[in-house]
Amino acid sequence: MLSAALAVTAQATLVSYDSGFVGTQIPDNSIVGLQNTLGAGAGTVLDVNVVLNIRGTYNGDLYATLTHGSSKAVLLNRVGKPSFSVIGFGDNGFDNLTLDDEAATDVHYYTGGAADGPAVTGTYQPDGRDVDPFSGDLASAARTAMLNVFDGASASGDWTLFLADASGADLNYLVSWQLNLDVQPSTGVPDSSLGGIGFSALLFGGLLTMARRRSWVHGN
Q: What is the C-alpha separation between 162 and 52, in angstroms, rounded?
């Protein structure tokens, strides 16, 4: 019976939500920015990754966040600024850029950065520096706004990507984006954690005790 109880355990599931083609300009040199929202289904968040497709002429201008409920992760914050350049990296956009807390390299310091360089691709850690992209001190900012801020939250509801272009002259466009969630479905049955196993073992023990009592009654 314990095996049967564990067999119905809800398994973690990867769910993807895609914006499709957006093709909207991010307002140049404006804190107003651009928002795009995706709605997600039920479940408990175990992990979050985001994929960005942005076409533009200066990556160092860009600031991007993901919000859900009261939590916010900073995906981009003027990459390359100030450690490599006072105005950030000059590459032209991001092509299937995956932002993942478990990646090896902070996107703020990706290899490249040349003016008019090709679109950046690959998998990087999000920037995580929650400071004002127009006037904040990126040199000493702590990385307090990673994607793990969503871990343990309900996946249900709106997930909003915000993009701002924090400097003038260069234009950038949101082409599309994707939200990838690892979720634990809400099933109302014990999960595979120690708590779930403990509950199942307790249930099994109770059934076994009842069976023994029933056998004793019939035998006497």
A: 12
